[in-house]
Automatic annotation (TrEMBL):
Name of the protein in question: Putative dihydrolipoamide dehydrogenase
Organism: Leptospirillum ferrooxidans (strain C2-3)
Disulfide bonds: 41-46
Cofactor(s) for this UniProt protein: FAD
Active-site residue list: 444
Gene3D superfamilies for this protein: 3.30.390.30, FAD/NAD(P)-binding domain (3.50.50.60)
Domain named FAD/NAD(P)-binding: residues: 3-323
Amino acid sequence: MDYDLITIGAGGGAYPAAFRLARLGLKILMVDSKGVMSGNCLAEGCVPSKSVREVAEHWERQRRFSSFGLKGDLVLDFERMMNHKDSVQKVRYQQHDGELSRTPGLSLLKGKAKMVSKHDISVLTDDGERLFRGKHILIASGSDVFIPPIPGANLCLTSHDLYKMNSAIHSCPSSVIVIGGGYVGLETATFFAAFGSSVTVLELGDQLLPGIDSEIVSMLVPQLSSLITPVLSAQVLSVTSQSEGKKRVKYRHNQTEVDISAEMVFMAAGRRPVIPDGAREAGVVMGPRGIEVDDRMRTNVPHVFACGDVNGRTPLFHAAVRQSLVCAHQIMGGEHASDRMDFGSVPTTVFTLPAASYVGLTPSILKERSIPFKRATYFFEEDSRAQIFGETAGGIHLFFHSETLKLLGGYVVGIDAENLIGEIGLAVSAGLSAMDLASFADQHPMASEGISKAARSLF
Ligand SMILES: Cc1cc2nc3c(=O)[nH]c(=O)nc-3n(C[C@H](O)[C@H](O)[C@H](O)COP(=O)(O)OP(=O)(O)OC[C@H]3O[C@@H](n4cnc5c(N)ncnc54)[C@H](O)[C@@H]3O)c2cc1C
Ligand SMILES: NC(=O)c1ccc[n+]([C@@H]2O[C@H](COP(=O)([O-])OP(=O)(O)OC[C@H]3O[C@@H](n4cnc5c(N)ncnc54)[C@H](O)[C@@H]3O)[C@@H](O)[C@H]2O)c1
């Protein structure tokens, strides 16, 4: 059967393009092995992990609020929290089903897709193999958990086990060892620590969150729960089972072998792109991070696009969505399409407690590229909302070009970081200057007033 577009995957990298083009009258097929939309984000990623995070944040705040007059003991019902997470996932799947059924010209097929040529896709479904031909192909097959070759790694839980519907765990472990101090590892460590678990994070690199500017990481780490113990440059050697369900992890640190044990070991050593079978044979070129694409989301094969985690450029849900829309505009406009993916202004948040968020160019990159810049800072110590919440650590840091005063980037660690970075990201993406930000009436008493206040400090 012929389609204008076939997507391999139906996550954030695929469905925005599919819906946009279907509304224009194109005939679209999305193929996903899960048989539902939203990929990893809804199944085991952003939404379920943030459902847990919000409970953890309220729990932490409640403790502090007892000294502000809100007395009483809250009790965590872990099972109900996980049920709530499941119900958010369910409601979003129903919402997506509704959107799909209201969109003529767009269908979703459950099955595993394979490229048999540059235009032909075979899909292994529950009822056998089916063949389809696409004028355009969008590879949006995402990424999957990477399990390093550590003996006993199969004894560890992953984000899939924890955040899927009907989670593998039903109570809060008293102790957790997390292998990998990146996004997933540190966020999950934070949630468990908020619920009272003691957590050891074993990170191979010499800083937590190795992909993030060390200045940001050094602002965040002292603010994390004291129940989290990070061990840097830790080389994990093995994971073994002990009595009473405990697990033992052996690792090498400073030339010494160390043994620790915990109720649960969580593996968060990264993710790898999922390259559909046949893509290489169809001539699609791979780069070091995944499928190679340009800023129009084109691969080297005309009419074959790759969006989202599979290209490894900015493995975040909202970045996948934006890339997908750029791809749709490229298919609509061809050589005349003017839309481009701006990989440099995607806001990123590590949803720890507190969060750390950044966008654009941060100090180490500015220094590395010898770009002259001015820093404008606002500390939450002087912020009314932060004082109201008793969360005055951290602040807003903005970086402007020294000559043009154009905003190049910024980061926030502390209260509302995850929301503040949206306004800063929009300003970076729109090419705004310090004067633009300084002359905007940012709302009081919200932490966002710190953005214009920081900019005003330059005048
Ligand atoms: C624990 C966790 C928390 C996260 N939290 C956040 C967050 O807070 N914010 C954020 O922005 N990002 C977050 N992310 C990252 C985010 O989930 C991904 O960046 C995003 O889901 C990528 O979308 P995608 O469409 O590229 O890929 P995916 O969501 O992985 O979707 C790809 C789909 O393709 C399907 N597929 C693969 N191969 C085939 C094939 N051959 N045939 C048919 N179907 C196939 C898969 O089944 C999958 O459904 C998180 C990730 C994890 C693991
Ligand atoms: N808040 C968010 O937006 C969010 C949340 C979760 C995930 N994500 C996305 O998903 C991607 C994957 O996240 P992730 O945390 O799985 O990967 P990651 O690459 O961020 O972190 C993996 C960490 O594991 C370490 N590591 C690798 N092998 C190890 C080993 N053998 N022993 C100890 N440590 C080891 C790495 O040095 C790294 O620090 C991220 O890049 C991010 O883009 C985003």
